[in-house]
């Protein structure tokens, strides 16, 4: 897909979010959310589903793919709904499907706490789990995972761990809360769940126009407001039309370079944000 969050060459986004709820017709609403270069959400597609099965999701995602002119997002984030996950794999075979870390942690809490006799033991378990889940490099991940599996005599499901989120261009989005927030906002436009499809469609269009106008205003403001970040990235910023959000993100690792507080080599910032990390900046 062309363009991504820090840059303004396109408002299309390489990472998308999926969420669904029901209405009075007992049909699920699948809404697909994108993220703009300003780190704000926008609505990409709405689909009413008669059934939440793999076939229905494949049909909905196929329409979405056609809208993208058969290009594939680099990342789609969703909850662990197997029908949706299988459909994503079918329609977008090269897209990474990341799972919401909040739901993973909720699952761990619900299924593991009962196996511990006291709170202190469980707190230690969760601390060890977090060390694995929030590993910032593959080396650290393999080390902490090995210790975790040895200590608790269990095999962790690698596909559920946040390390995967460190290895792909997801712009710091690790949960589906953005989609849930956008869905809640959408409900404020719908107001009631008893409307007909024509009325609902009109309200969807109103929500889309509102988000589009918000982005247009932000683009206009960016042209008149000068953001000064003292970084040695003049050439990088010249090659791309940078948003203020991206410039502020770049300034964080640059501050580490100036203060000499860089951590040992870890390229996850560059991988997940598509922006130079502190070690890269050191050689610019």
From TrEMBL:
Q: Which Pfam families match?
A: MULE
Signal sequence, renumbered to the chain: none
Cite the InterPro entries for this sequence: MULE_transposase_dom (IPR018289), Zinc_finger_SWIM (IPR052579)
Which stretches make up the MULE transposase domain? Answer: 21-107
The name under which this protein is listed is: MULE transposase domain-containing protein
């Amino acid at each position: 897909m062309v363009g991504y969050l820090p840059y303004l060459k396109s408002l299309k986004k390489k990472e998308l979010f999926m969420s669904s709820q029901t209405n009075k017709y007992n049909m699920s609403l699948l809404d697909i959310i994108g993220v703009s270069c300003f780190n704000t959400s926008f609505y990409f597609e709405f689909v009413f589903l008669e059934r939440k099965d793999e076939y229905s999701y494949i049909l909905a995602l196929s329409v979405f793919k056609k809208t993208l002119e058969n290009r594939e997002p680099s990342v789609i984030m969703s909850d662990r709904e197997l029908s949706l996950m299988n459909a994503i794999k079918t329609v977008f075979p090269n897209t990474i499907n990341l799972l919401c870390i909040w739901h993973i942690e909720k699952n761990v809490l619900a299924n593991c706490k009962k196996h511990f006799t006291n709170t202190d033991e469980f707190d230690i378990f969760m601390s060890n789990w977090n060390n694995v889940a929030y590993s910032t490099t593959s080396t650290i991940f393999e080390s902490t995972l090995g210790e975790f599996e040895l200590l608790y005599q269990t095999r962790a499901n690698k596909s559920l761990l946040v390390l995967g989120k460190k290895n792909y261009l997801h712009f710091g989005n690790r949960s589906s809360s953005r989609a849930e927030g956008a869905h809640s906002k959408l409900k404020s436009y719908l107001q009631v769940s008893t409307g007909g499809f024509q009325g609902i469609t009109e309200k969807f269009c109103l929500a889309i126009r509102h988000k589009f106008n918000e982005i247009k205003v932000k683009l206009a403001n960016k042209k008149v407001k000068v953001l000064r970040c003292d970084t040695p990235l003049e050439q990088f910023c010249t090659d791309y039309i940078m948003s203020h959000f991206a410039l502020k993100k770049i300034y964080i690792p640059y501050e580490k370079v100036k203060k000499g507080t860089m951590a040992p080599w870890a390229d996850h910032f560059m991988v997940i944000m598509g922006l130079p990390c502190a070690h890269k900046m050191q050689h610019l």
